[in-house]
Design brief:
The chain is α+β, with helices and mostly antiparallel strands. Among the domains are: about 140 residues, Glutathione S-transferase Yfyf (Class Pi), Chain A, domain 2; about 60 residues, no CATH class. Helices cover about 55% and strands about 5% of the residues. A five-stranded mixed sheet has the order 3-4-5-9-6, with helices on both faces. Helix 7 runs antiparallel to helix 11 and helix 26 packs antiparallel against helix 27. The chain is globular. The N and C termini lie far apart (about 65 Å). About 45% of the residues are buried.
Amino acid sequence: MPINNPLLKKFDTPFGVPPFDQVKVEHFMPAITEGIRLAKEEVAAIIANPEAPTFENSVVALERGGEMIGKASSILFNLNSAETSDALQEVTREASPLLSQHSNEIWQNEGLYNRVKKVYNQKGQLDLSGEEEILLEKTYKAFVRNGANLSDEQKKRFQEVSMELSQLTLKFGENVLAETNDYEKVITDESQLAGLPDSAKTMAKETAKKKDKADAWVFTLQAPSYIPFMENATNRELREELYKAYMSKANKGDERDNKEVVKKIVALRAEIASLLGYESYAAYVLEERMAGSSKQVNDFLGDLLDKAKPMAEKEVIEIREFAKKLDGLEDLQRWDWSFYSEKLKKEKYAIDDELLRPYFKLENVLNGVFETVSKLYGLTFKEQENIPVYHSDVTAYEVLNDKGEHEAIFYADFHPREGKRGGAWMTSYRSQEIVNGENIRPHVSIVCNFTPSTDDQPSLLTFNEVLTLFHEFGHALHGMLANTTYSSLSGTGVYWDFVELPSQIFENWCYEKECLDLFASHYQTGELIPQEYIDKLKASSTYHEAYATIRQVSFGYLDMGWYSVPLGEMTDKTADASQFEEEVMASTELFPKVPGTMMSTQFSHIFAGGYAAGYYSYKWAEVLDADAFSLFKENGIFDPETAQLFKNTVLSKGGSVHPADLYKQFRGREPKVDALLERAGLA
């Protein structure tokens, strides 16, 4: 075993962070195979323990195991999302089935299961804390939900399916990334840029330079390039071209087409559910969610649809009439929506992204986030140049608490590049836990795709990008402020329809003058954002909110549609993936279908991420966040007692207490939908 592999040793780095400056692609497989070997030895030792099974020697011993494999795989999969390459993708494809097989061997190990089961059956006689009870329950259920009670033949099939799924989900993500990276619209005639703001043109010129296309402007499917084009370009044919390119990702009938991948993923997940005795994969997933059942989710989405659709239809009619009046347009299409919606918004509220951008210089916004969490939770952030990072775009910070003590490590990675998948997310390289009395603090990262700087100006964010930064930072706080005993219950280790509460509630501060005054100053003059702009921001916050709600509901229906089909009905119902999608989303459609476009083939959340049968959780958590923020509004958005209460009941507890109980501890009652309906203008 090569001794110079940093993944095989204790990290000799500041705060024990990953040694990104030393890790090479060829280090991962040796570390993973050695990690699997060590983990097997740990499991064998638990089973061979001659003492009677106890919570400590069986449940906690299993919880604490697998340290090397956990470190190596977290770095591998995080880099595969944030800074991948052909070589790294190849290693990830090689490692995934091995890790899947190893996981199955643990959860289907009869000797290990019998020890945990004995402890579980005695739980009434054990003097366990609330957190210990939850860990015991979660561990026992993990065995059952991963096939511990299956026959040998069924276990073998479960393992085969799991390994195939690990490959298919990777393939799905690789196809979407490749499709996104490969598209470029090269424009050489400046007249075709009519309507575009200078910031969009400058960025397109910079992109052209990087791609060695002199005397041209290049637009891509990355959000900072695509969205300004769709909102501002007067050339309707080009908007149509970009829209169709964006919405046909991995749906072109070639080697990157994801339709068959989608069908296989869905069928294999349905088979897993069937093996375990569930009617559908959704039923299997929702057993471990606040919502509880497919019926509850569909009722929730249906209620939102009923409330929002009449208003959304009026919004579409309004835009249709506006486009006709403005440009004589008779046939409003999907690629026209953003363009005319943005124009009408500017007319109604005299506000748009380009008016606001100068007040949202990225560095200022980030400092504003830091100051906001300092006022709320007493945290400070110190940039640390001695902490290794995986790309020059990444900045590392040490996070200190209100006593000046070490709280966490925070990585920030903000701009698009070819090795990074689209979107924005929070992740962690090390979770918080308490071992032998030592509180091991977390290493947390947020990864985004914001408008980059150019030769002429710094990175100036749209207001939506500001919201995204606050959103992901809310997730980061959930990780950084964690304070539980066990890592699997720490930070974001909560029910999936509760995990968005810390992120979505933090977005609310962006609309408050008291918060905006901390960071929203003109990057050239230093002038604070005018009160009239804040008033317009608030007034426009419900603009086309019904349309946006229907869009989210449509994605929730699509997710639930795919994962609610029982295995026995799969072949008949999903034979034509495009037709299936069309039927499932029919009740939410506000425009005619565009041939060749498809959402499922690029829906990474539910096919390559963790949101399968869980996409509804964004809207579910909105009910919680609106209701929770109303308490801050009552007491003051920087009220220390309310902030401390939220930290103590939600942010620090992770999954150590049932989320419904945590919410009631914070709010003093069950959540009410009223605040969301009022905020969204749907009351």
